[in-house]
Description:
Number of domains of chain B: 1
Distance between the termini of chain A: 37 Å
Number of helices of chain A: 15
Strand content of chain A: under 5%
Radius of gyration of chain B: 30 Å
Number of strands of chain B: 11
CATH superfamily of chain B: Mog1/PsbP, alpha/beta/alpha sandwich
Low-confidence stretches of chain B: 1-16
Mean pLDDT of chain B: 84
Strand content of chain B: 25-35%
Shape of chain B: elongated
Number of strands of chain A: 1
Order of helices and strands of chain B: EHHEEEEEHEEEEEH
Largest sheet of chain B: 8 strands, antiparallel
Structural class of chain B: alpha+beta
Order of helices and strands of chain A: EHHHHHHHHHHHHHHH
Number of helices of chain B: 4
Number of domains of chain A: 2
Largest interface: A-B, 65 and 60 residues
CATH topology of chain B: Protein Transport Mog1p, Chain A
Shape of chain A: globular
Radius of gyration of chain A: 23 Å
Oligomer: heterodimer
CATH class of chain B: Alpha Beta
Amino acid sequence: MNGTPSTVAPMGAGAARLTRQPAFWLFTMLLAGCFLFVGLEQVFYLASYPGAWLLSVLLLAATAIPAGLIIYRFDQFEPEPTSLVAIALLWGGVVALIFAGVTNSWLLSFLQHVMPATSVDSWGAAIVAPIDEELYKGAGLVIIYLMARSEFESVMDGLVYGAMIGLGFQVMENVQYFMLAAGESGVGQAAPVVGMFFLRVVISGLYSHMMFTGLMGFGFAYLMTQRDKPLGRRVSMFAMCLVLAWAAHFVWNSPWLEALMSQGAGVFVLALIIKGLPFLGLLVLLGVFAHRRECRAFAYLMANEVGSDVVTPEEFQVLRSGRRRRKSLRWVKKHKGKPARLVCKRLMRAQMNLALFHGKVESGDHPALEAQRDMIRQLKGRLAAFG
Amino acid sequence: MNQSGQPIYTTRGAQPRPFPGQRALRTSWRASMMLVSVMFGWLIFTFALAAIAAPNDPNVEVPVQVGLGVVVTPADGWYSAADDWEVGPNAVSFQKSGALVAFAAEEFAGTNDQLLTAQLGFIEQDFESYRSLPASSSTVSGDLPGLTALFTGVSSSSRLEGELVVATSAGTGVIMLAIAPEGQLSRVQGDLGTMLDNLVVPR
């Protein structure tokens, strides 16, 4: 959380800044081109299997929206702008999906002409998909960074953007799988969609693209944001995360444990857990590491504010923990009512934004900080009025 | 800091926030163009790889003796499934993308109907639940009349679908049995048709 700001801009200026970035216009062009293909594909699905398509959209929305919200809340102290989150989702679900789809088929065709059929049959997906898909999903991280460097401030940001790109990719890829299942089954449209949903979302949803690109996002953000660390260390960390993302995808697509998978539903699920859980565990560890860094940065940035009328030590302890914030909000709602809870929530956000502003200005008496302190005082006054 | 003389922040309406520094605002076409170049570069590279390798085919489809004079040529991408599916004498098995197919030949003096009924009876014993569609006529080895039956069922907790094709000629019964996970058989039906067309059967 550092930078060299020079002035103050109102909220909403971010979108205007975005349109001044060449990367944004390149993204827009790529999105428009790829959207044609994705749109046509979806229209075809809707026309061919309307029931299955609608069911797919409903099932995926029911799981992807909560998953997106959970990822969004990973970064408690500085939630990412919704415009950039939308760009990440669109990149994964439209741009990366199309580019990876085309290159996957060409690379697989190449393998089919240089490798024995038995090897391609077993290993083709494990070789091709990680190379192409991780490359194009990773390009999304770069383009977001080029669009809004100021929003790429910590490793947590990379993890969130990476997971969002992965989520977009995963959702649209799942639609393709669901429609394929519906098309190939002669037993109606709902049953194969539900079966595929169970397999790809309920059983193995956590071990998929969200995890792969989340790992890569962590490494990319470490490289780009941890500028106080030696370059060699940053590059090594990025390379390690890249290899991990690729390896997780490779292991997931590989035929390893296939013999085990054919021995019943329980063993099948166990095999999937063996394949995915170690990498998921690693991502969780990196997430905890990123969260602790955020907490430390938050404490550091708030050091001069704690103890003032803006943030009391007790409030600071509450602000540091998501669990304590939620508990505090519940208490306010119970004892002072819903409107008070809303004011309290805004107060907490304003206090947390104060830390964010500290990270962007050089002096403690910067006008933006003064304005933010005034806002906090006003909100405290409003909250006190509830009794 | 505020050289233009404009207000440096608004206090009403939108919430003020610090404006990012020059590094964050720097716009560069070069970096963006490099990224797009990598994306399209990889696209072109994979296309070139596929195009260059296209004439090369490491999977030479060699005709395989089934037995009793019956010969089958596996379609492109099919390879032996002997390790996964033991089919006994006068039979061979192949696999591709999770689908399995076996070709068998046996001495048989009856009709196609009788051969089909006998084979469906054997298949039914291997399934916990089983359902087949009425048989339809087809041709094998170009013009040899045969019968085809499609079926679905559950075997060892797996939902499978299959296709059974039988034909008789000169005292030899020829059988093709293909099995794939439910929803997967249609992917390989073109290959199965090719193999049946190219089947060599003694007349």
